[in-house]
Write a structure and sequence with these properties.
Blueprint (H helix, E strand, L loop, with lengths): L2 E6 L7 H9 L4 E4 L8 E5 L2 E5 L12 E4 L4 E2 L1 H13 L7 E4 L3 E2 L2 H14 L11 H10 L5 H4 L4 H20 L7 H15 L3 E2 L1 H10 L4 E4 L24 H7 L8 E7 L2 E3 L12 H9 L12 E3 L1 E2 H11 L3 E5 L9 E10 L2 E3 L6 H5 L2 E8 L16 H14 L3 E5 L7 E3 L22
Parallel strand pairs: 1-10, 1-11, 2-5, 2-10, 5-7, 6-8, 7-9, 11-15, 14-16, 15-19
Antiparallel strand pairs: 3-4, 12-13, 16-17, 16-18, 19-20
The structure holds inosinic acid.
The site of inosinic acid (IMP) has 19 residues, from helix 4.
Length: about 450
């Protein structure tokens, strides 16, 4: 039995979907603990490709329970669309459970997200426009609608009447937008409630029961460490806590119940939206990584900004999340390069800096200090073991493991499940705390 948290060690889109899909095979329960329909992963079933934003891909395994936890925000229209897609394939969704204390994204959240981005002009965050920030803001302001309100036929009209009238003042007076009709929204959300009601549970209790029964639980983070509201590149962040600690709050479990943290990082770096990115590559090399890595957002289709691997943020992610081992994805994207750079540290105002600075202003002034490694210029997509890898590719991986003082348990070389090298069992292999961090081998 092991309870494992899988998190993104960069700015999201690290390939967590594939890693959680692989690990879901040995999980009894998969819990999504934060974020909303801003996330996205592509799933291929029976030659059909579809995109999921909220439902964990564990739903494709018939005996795996999937829980959308308390720390998430749920857009019911999108969730119902996902349920329809899955059911249309003949896959049962009875194992999908929804937390009664998750917050609900309403039409005014989406409108305010888009309008406030427009109003920010050059100060914009580059959000996904899915209403995520405003839904979490209402949660903090204590004007949010929770799933248990959504499915309460008496409470919902009362609460929505008040809230929509309050939000209409903001829509009309601040953003010059037409007001929403409370009756229309109430009717629409009551229909959603009927569809979702059978899935709604006290999720932290369900998770606790699974822990008591010694089930394997996988806590799946969305987005990535540098998008964390508290620990990321604020204000260019999302509004939840994708870091490993967020699993405890978002799922409602104590820290003593987590056995292991697996960090997922690309062999290079990408980011979508605004905000500083020291190793960003502009020009042909950036274009090449984008094209080879198909770096376009699943949710918005936006082109992802691409750059070299940054070990400063890598080490930061190890520290903030307590990462035990890493999954390195998309190594094959680097196959054609003659030389590959890795950022070792930054230079700020002529001084060497080994640590990620909390200030975004300072971060935007960071100049990367690189080490250049030779490329392997050979295809790795068919490699299935470390021995199959070109020596220079293996050296690259060893260098990343050394820089971050964490063993690499898994290497991904393409989108399909079999394009993976399992270096060691990511769930039961030795933990980082047991290793001599001055001498970290690729595999512990
Ligand atoms: P929001 O989460 O839509 O409010 O967007 C805030 C920031 O997080 C923006 O820079 C988005 O591009 C980024 N973001 C949100 N979700 C994801 C994701 O799943 N992958 C990568 N970036 C994301």
């Amino acid at each position: 039995m092991a309870n494992v948290v899988v998190i993104g060690a960069q700015w999201g889109d690290e390939g967590k979907g594939k890693v959680t899909d692989l690990l879901s095979r040995s999980a009894d329960v998969v819990v999504r603990y934060q974020g909303g329909v801003n996330a996205g992963h592509t799933v291929v079933v029976k030659d059909q490709t579809f995109k999921l934003h909220l439902i964990p891909s564990g739903i494709l395994y018939p005996d795996t329970k999937c829980i959308i936890g308390s720390g998430t925000v749920i857009d019911p229209a999108v969730l119902i669309e996902e349920l329809d897609q899955i059911e249309a394939l003949g896959i049962s969704t009875k194992n999908l459970l929804i937390s009664e204390t998750a917050h609900v994204t309403m039409p005014y959240h989406r409108l305010i997200d888009k309008a406030s981005e427009e109003r920010r002009g050059s100060q914009k965050i580059g959000t996904t426009g899915r209403g995520i920030g405003p839904t979490y803001a209402d949660k903090s302001e204590r004007t949010g609608i929770r799933v248990l309100d959504l499915i309460d036929p008496e409470a919902l009209p009362q609460q929505l009447n008040w809230t929509i009238n309050y939000k209409n003042v903001i829509l009309e007076k601040l953003y010059d937008l037409p007001p929403l009709d409370p009756a229309v929204v109430i009717e629409q959300y009551q229909t959603y409630a009927e569809r979702l009601r059978p899935h709604v549970v006290d999720s932290s209790l369900k998770i606790y029961e699974a822990i008591e029964q010694k089930r394997n639980i996988l806590f799946e983070g969305a987005q990535g460490t540098l998008l964390d509201l508290d620990h990321g590149t604020y204000p260019y962040v999302t509004s939840s806590n994708p870091v490993a600690g967020g699993a405890c709050i978002g799922a409602g479990v104590g820290p003593t119940m987590i056995d292991r943290v697996i960090g997922v990082a690309k062999a290079y770096t990408t980011r979508v939206g605004e905000g500083p990115f020291p190793t960003e590559l502009e020009g042909t090399l950036g274009e090449l990584l984008c094209a080879r890595g198909a770096e376009f957002g699943t949710t918005t289709g936006r082109r992802r900004r691409c750059g070299w691997f940054d070990s400063v943020i890598g080490r930061y992610a190890v520290r903030i999340n307590g990462i035990d081992c890493l999954a390195i994805t998309k190594l094959d994207v680097l196959d054609t390069l003659e030389e590959i750079k890795v950022c070792l540290a930054y230079e700020i105002d002529g001084e060497r800096c080994e640590h990620f600075p909390s200030s975004s202003r300072k971060f935007s002034q960071c100049l990367p200090i690189y080490k250049t490694l030779p490329g392997w210029q050979q295809s790795t997509s068919e490699c299935r073991s470390l021995e199959d890898l070109p020596t220079k590719a293996l050296d690259y991986l060893k260098f990343l493991a050394e820089l971050m003082a964490v063993p690499i348990a898994l290497v991904s070389l393409g989108a399909s499940r079999d394009q993976t090298i399992i270096v060691e069992d990511p769930i039961h292999g030795p933990k980082r705390a047991l290793l001599d961090t001055n001498n970290v081998p690729l595999s512990s």
